[in-house]
Inverse folding.
């Protein structure tokens, strides 16, 4: 009989039950998501990483629900209150919210007002009133007056009875469902300025008197308001119309117009104001916060993926510059593998003599180290430094490239940087990071906390555990999609390879340092603690150039080598010939090689890989040149048309670097002539665009840009 949870996940993710069961089985065996997506397509029906991740998340969520369900059943049994009906209700509750609502009346409580009233013997009076018969509560309450128990008057007795009724209303499953539904459908999120914080909290002035339906509030506004509240500048409430909520509750509990019903009505209002509304508001806050987090995480993950997968320059000798005015520009030379060869400081723009000194040193470096590209950080003095290098009349084949240096300073001060360059200061490390980022953004950026790259949306306001997990998984996905050259990769890069992790990555580096480069993939089995399962998970994503077997440099998994050997044997050629000659590959009938373990998806992947073993899935590198005469914000005027590069995409628009040390914002309303719901559908991080300056606020350093009308983005995102 199919597992109920598996069926639920299949419906949620919109896949078959068999696919869910296959993914579940593979995950239980210790398989990673990249491995399952790449090398177990026959078992999963070619599910991608997103679907596999959704299945895993759903299974984990339902497992947590089952764990809580079991804990509640045990608690109810201990209290001797677990009836067959209650057990069925607990076991069939589909969500954590419904499960907790069922458990609420039985949950151990602190001494509430209702408990105190019960201790005073007022529960029978509450039951009389709640029944709303023909009795007069004022008369009934007289017999419950007991000074010794703390009930000094009829009003004290009635107040205690109302406290008990208020708790019954609050714990009633139907009442909670009704009010929760009203909150979901009609609640308004209201924001006002905290008393006396008008001046100090001016950055939140948009929310000093703000309200909107919570169903329509975008995630970035929710996070902004919640941040303002957390910092003490705003007061936030989330409530539906008060009278409507009370009317719904009265419809549930008020049975007549008598004196007892009047007491019940008072208890209902107290229950709503003191118990029910605050409780439901807390739930709704958590839900809209999660919704806002989901939006922010989607933005961050998308931007991170596009940043990590930015086109690499490749293995070329690079001269990298960390620009500076007073302290000079730190210059480093890197070989094609990113090794530091030389470093110096040059001073430009201070005097003709110093400019000449800088020119001589740079040209000497270019010749001595056979420099093939110039990388310049885009921070302070970046445009001036770029202008200096372009004025050197370098050969056309040596591009001068502005590199986004966000996070380079974080890396340069990190333990990783100190271990790599123990004898160099942070400015040298920063320049090295800039150069390596041009050569291979992915390999360098994995050394930096993704939150420091400057591509998020309210990243400090979202759930930090979820943020870390989502970003780590994105890095893992990108690293394994590209593949890693095991003989040159850093420990940080190897950490993200499927099946490795920090310990095995460290062991791989240690083995490589002691024994020299790996000659074949099977040598990885000699690495301490790298057992058969880790090898299975990692081998296909690790590349070994110039290996005896050319497949070791490809994404073909060693478990499939025998298939390729069989193909070559059937064609009467060597493996090298099969890779080199298209006419041989075209003669292969894949159906001849299909079996129980290998179907068309795997065989097609193998054939694609044979065309170009170890191909890089990232697009070809293309340098961007900013407007030569526009280097600062005060040179901008409305109407200017400028080239730029997208640096961040949020739910409200895109930020574009136009080379003036301050990114401009293309608001979502200015991204295209048509209505845009999701900016990520129009632009992506690292995309080359042409923008029009709409307005400039030099005092607040704000630039408004537009891509409307004739202003068009590059036809291919991410180029």
């Amino acid at each position: 009989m199919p597992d109920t949870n598996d069926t639920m996940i299949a419906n949620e993710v919109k896949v078959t039950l068999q696919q869910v069961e296959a993914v579940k089985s593979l995950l239980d065996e210790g398989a990673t998501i990249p491995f399952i997506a790449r090398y177990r397509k026959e078992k999963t029906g070619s599910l991608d990483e997103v679907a596999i991740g959704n299945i895993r998340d759903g299974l984990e969520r339902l497992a947590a629900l089952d764990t809580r369900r079991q804990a509640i059943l045990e608690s109810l049994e201990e209290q001797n209150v677990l009836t067959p009906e209650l057990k069925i209700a607990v076991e069939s509750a589909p969500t954590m919210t419904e499960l907790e609502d069922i458990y609420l009346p039985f949950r151990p409580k602190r001494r509430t007002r209702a408990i105190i009233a019960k201790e005073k013997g007022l529960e029978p009076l509450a039951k009389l009133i709640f029944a709303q018969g023909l009795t007069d509560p004022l008369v009934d309450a007289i017999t419950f007056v007991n000074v010794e128990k703390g009930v000094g008057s009829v009003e004290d007795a009635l107040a205690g009875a109302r406290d008990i009724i208020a708790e019954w209303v609050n714990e009633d499953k139907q009442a909670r469902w009704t009010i929760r539904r009203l909150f979901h459908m009609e609640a308004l999120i209201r924001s006002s300025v905290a008393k006396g914080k008008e001046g100090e909290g001016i950055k939140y002035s948009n929310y000093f008197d703000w309200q909107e339906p919570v169903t329509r509030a975008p995630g970035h506004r929710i996070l902004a308001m919640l941040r303002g509240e957390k910092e003490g500048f705003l007061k936030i409430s989330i409530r539906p119309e008060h009278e409507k909520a009370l009317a719904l509750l009265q419809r549930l509990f008020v049975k007549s117009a008598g004196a007892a019903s009047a007491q019940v009505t008072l208890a209902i209002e107290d229950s709503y104001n003191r118990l029910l509304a605050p409780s439901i508001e807390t739930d709704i806050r958590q839900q809209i916060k999660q919704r806002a987090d989901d939006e922010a995480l989607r933005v961050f993950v998308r931007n991170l993926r596009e940043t990590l997968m930015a086109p690499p320059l490749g293995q070329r000798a690079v001269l990298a510059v960390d620009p500076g005015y007073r302290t000079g520009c730190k210059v480093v030379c890197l070989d094609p593998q990113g090794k530091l060869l030389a470093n110096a400081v040059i001073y430009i723009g201070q005097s003709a003599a110093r400019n000449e000194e800088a020119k001589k040193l740079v040209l000497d470096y270019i010749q001595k180290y056979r420099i093939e590209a110039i990388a310049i950080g885009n921070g302070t003095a970046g445009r001036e430094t770029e202008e200096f290098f372009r004025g050197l009349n370098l050969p056309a084949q040596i591009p001068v490239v502005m590199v986004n240096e966000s996070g380079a300073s974080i890396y340069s001060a990190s333990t990783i940087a100190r271990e790599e360059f123990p004898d160099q200061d942070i400015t040298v490390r920063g320049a090295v990071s800039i150069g390596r980022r041009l050569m291979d953004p992915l390999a360098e950026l994995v050394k930096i906390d993704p939150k420091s790259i400057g591509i998020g949306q309210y990243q400090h306001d979202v759930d930090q555990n979820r943020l870390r997990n989502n970003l780590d998984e994105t890095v893992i996905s990108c690293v394994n999609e590209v593949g890693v050259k095991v003989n040159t990769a850093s420990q940080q890069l190897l950490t993200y390879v499927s099946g490795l992790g920090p310990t095995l990555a460290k062991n791989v580096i240690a083995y490589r340092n002691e024994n020299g480069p790996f000659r074949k993939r099977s040598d990885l089995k000699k690495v301490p603690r790298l057992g058969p399962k880790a090898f299975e998970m990692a081998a296909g994503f690790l590349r070994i150039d110039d290996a005896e077997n050319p497949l070791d440099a490809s994404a073909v998994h060693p478990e499939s080598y025998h298939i390729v050997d069989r193909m070559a044997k059937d064609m009467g050629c060597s493996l090298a010939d099969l890779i080199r000659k298209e006419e041989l590959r075209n003669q292969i009938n894949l159906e001849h090689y299909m079996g129980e373990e290998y179907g068309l998806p795997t065989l097609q992947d193998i054939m694609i890989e044979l065309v170009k073993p170890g191909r890089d899935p990232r697009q070809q590198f293309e340098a961007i040149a900013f407007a030569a005469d526009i280097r600062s914000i005060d040179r901008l005027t409305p109407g200017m048309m400028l080239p730029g590069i997208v640096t961040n995409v949020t739910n409200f628009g895109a930020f574009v670097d136009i080379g003036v040390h301050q990114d401009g914002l293309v608001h979502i309303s200015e991204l295209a002539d048509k209505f845009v719901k999701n900016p990520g559908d129009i632009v992506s991080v690292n995309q080359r665009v042409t923008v029009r300056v709409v307005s400039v606020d030099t005092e607040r350093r704000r630039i408004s840009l537009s891509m409307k009308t004739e202003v068009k983005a590059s036809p291919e995102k991410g180029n």
Summary: The first strand starts at residue 188 and ends at 193. Residues 259-308 form the longest helix (50 residues).
